[in-house]
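Tokens as discussed.
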């Protein structure tokens, strides 16, 4: 009953005109970001962070805006997958397999609406999963001491490459780079400047919002400049939408698929490092084995559209569980959301539910509202969103650059931060060329100081004994999961990745 009462309080917070309008704006902008090939949820949220700060929003409204963008981008990713066979982001890749054949058969409108319904079902059940699971996880996390927290942060770094990762060395390099960046600034315990090179602007460390916007948004602009790809992907292609609502028999046939894959996707989202990409992949694979008796998957079977869409949206909700309950992001986009929370002086983790219940429950209530908004918005506005695919990058990218520069200057008022942002943009561009994942860098920058402080505290409490890091069953359990999570991709990563990409081209090195 406590949960329902807290949820009721959350709805009282979320159901204000300002928050409803922000959720609507976030859903719309998120769907736009998700629909545009190559941008995806991580980029979408990163690009719009400056907007939240420029509007001077508080913690709860900012989170409502940005998580609505996140959910909207998860919905939007399917539009270009179905119409153009080009996934908006990596989790939408599996939707191409049956979504595009349906479009070729003149059922594009039905496929888009069905994927909207599947996304709704996945996200709806995942939000209930978040409500039920996160408070239980908090109870365990309250038993954590500094050694367990250090092990938890190590687990986050070792598993963020994901089960689909093919090169753990690059993930480890990216994490080390992020940790190195977190070391810049005055040491909070000794007062000694580290890696500042005499530059006073570095004494407070590097603002991770500057790093995120540079790495995600600006690097996208640099890639556009390099490729000079000025035309939209949809130009010259015929896009027939057809009937907008799926027949009831189709929805009924897909309902068991949606329910099964919602559960599976949620589990994939909760697991550290798995994320929405794996959620959609295992959902599609499981349904193909379970119900595809006649070999119709891959030829435009509606169940092949419903399965990955319910799976990846459920995984997006599941990824919020470790972020809110433990302070450890379960996916790339939740790492960006974690940065927003930290910038607002809110520390995610076990105490978040006790210290900031208005933020947590207001956010959860907003997720429900955003979900209904997205369903209501996506079916009648399918025609409008498909026209967005016609926007050429030569118009889009200057807008992304402008929002980044104005937003960051609006937050800090420092031209030095703009130079740092450009530096991160160039670094992001180079790393993406080398296929180095960007998310571990962000995670290192975000969690580096907390990880270091917990390590120092654990060692100091035990008089310099390093074995204190593996002195309790909880920490041993966390280290075991971390090691398995690091080694598993070495064994299965290449196989999983190749199967995920067998029909789609990877758009970028950013994964969710």
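Sequence:
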């Amino acid at each position: 009953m406590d949960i329902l009462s807290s949820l009721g309080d959350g709805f009282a917070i979320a159901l204000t005109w300002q928050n409803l309008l922000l959720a609507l704006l976030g859903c719309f902008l998120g769907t736009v970001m998700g629909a545009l090939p190559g941008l995806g949820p991580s980029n979408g949220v990163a690009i719009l962070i400056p907007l939240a700060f420029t509007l001077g929003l508080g913690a709860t409204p900012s989170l409502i805006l940005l998580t609505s963008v996140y959910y909207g981008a998860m919905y939007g990713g399917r539009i270009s997958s179905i119409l153009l066979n080009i996934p908006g982001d990596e989790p939408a890749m599996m939707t191409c397999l049956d979504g595009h054949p349906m479009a070729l058969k003149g059922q594009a409108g039905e496929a888009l609406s069905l994927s909207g319904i599947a996304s709704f079902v996945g996200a709806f059940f995942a939000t209930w999963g978040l409500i039920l699971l996160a408070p239980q996880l908090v109870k365990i996390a309250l038993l954590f001491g500094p050694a367990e927290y250090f092990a938890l942060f190590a687990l986050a770094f070792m598993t963020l490459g994901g089960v689909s990762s093919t090169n753990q060395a690059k993930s480890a390099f990216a994490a080390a780079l992020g940790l190195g960046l977190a070391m810049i600034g005055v040491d909070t315990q000794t007062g000694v400047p580290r890696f500042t090179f005499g530059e006073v602007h570095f004494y407070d460390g590097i603002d991770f919002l500057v790093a995120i916007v540079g790495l995600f948004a600006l690097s996208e602009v640099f890639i556009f400049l390099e490729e000079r790809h000025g035309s939209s992907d949809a130009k010259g292609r015929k896009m027939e939408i057809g009937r907008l609502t799926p027949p009831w028999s189709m929805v009924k046939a897909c309902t068991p698929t949606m329910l099964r894959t919602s559960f599976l996707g949620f589990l994939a989202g909760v697991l550290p490092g798995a994320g929405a990409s794996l959620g959609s992949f295992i959902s599609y694979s499981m349904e193909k084995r379970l119900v595809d008796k006649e070999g119709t998957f891959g030829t435009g079977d509606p169940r092949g559209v419903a399965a990955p869409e319910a799976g990846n949206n459920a995984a997006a909700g599941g990824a919020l569980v470790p972020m809110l309950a433990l302070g450890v992001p379960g996916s790339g986009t939740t790492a960006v959301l974690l940065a927003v929370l930290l910038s607002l002086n809110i520390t995610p983790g076990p105490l978040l539910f006790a210290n900031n219940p208005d933020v947590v429950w207001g956010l959860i209530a907003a997720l429900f509202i955003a979900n209904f908004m997205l369903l209501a918005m996506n079916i009648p506005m399918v025609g409008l969103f498909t026209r967005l695919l016609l926007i050429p990058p030569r118009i889009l990218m200057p807008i992304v650059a402008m929002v980044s520069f104005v937003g960051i200057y609006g937050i800090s008022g420092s031209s030095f931060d703009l130079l740092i942002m450009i530096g991160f943009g160039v670094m992001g561009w180079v790393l993406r060329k080398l296929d180095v994942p960007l998310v571990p860098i962000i995670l290192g920058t975000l969690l580096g100081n907390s990880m270091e402080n917990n390590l120092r505290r654990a060692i100091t409490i035990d008089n310099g004994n390093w074995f204190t890091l593996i002195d309790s069953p909880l920490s041993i359990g966390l280290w075991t999961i971390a090691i398995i999570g690091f080694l598993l991709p070495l064994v299965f990563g290449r196989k999983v990745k190749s199967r995920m990409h067998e029909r789609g081209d990877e758009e970028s090195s950013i994964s969710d």
